[in-house]
């Protein structure tokens, strides 16, 4: 469950190049496509989804909370960022378009 930053250049990332300090482009994802869950009237809920930590990035939609990092796990098919406040899911991409989250 390593958090890996894809880099085009070889070599070890410098501390300041680690994920938390990168400028990430956030793209809203459809939770149905990335999390195994059950759709209710207005909600899409999944059991046993664990957030691994809080990100520096705020939610770009509601701007109410820091995004939570959710890595791939039993009911999560794609690592993503999650807003607890509005329950939206986001993919994170580097400025060159490379996915920032991998596992
Ligand atoms: Zn939000």
From TrEMBL:
It comes from the Bacteria. It comes from Pseudoduganella violacea. This is Uncharacterized protein.
């Amino acid at each position: 469950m390593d958090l890996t930053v894809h880099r085009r250049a070889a070599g070890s990332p410098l501390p300041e190049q680690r994920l938390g300090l990168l400028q990430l482009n956030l793209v809203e994802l459809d939770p149905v496509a990335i999390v195994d869950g059950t759709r209710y009237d207005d909600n899409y809920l999944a059991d046993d989804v664990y957030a691994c930590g809080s990100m520096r990035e705020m939610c770009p939609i509601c701007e109410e909370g820091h995004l939570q990092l959710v890595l791939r796990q039993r009911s999560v098919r794609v690592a993503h960022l999650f807003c607890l406040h509005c329950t939206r899911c986001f993919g994170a991409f580097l400025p060159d378009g490379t996915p920032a989250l991998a596992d």
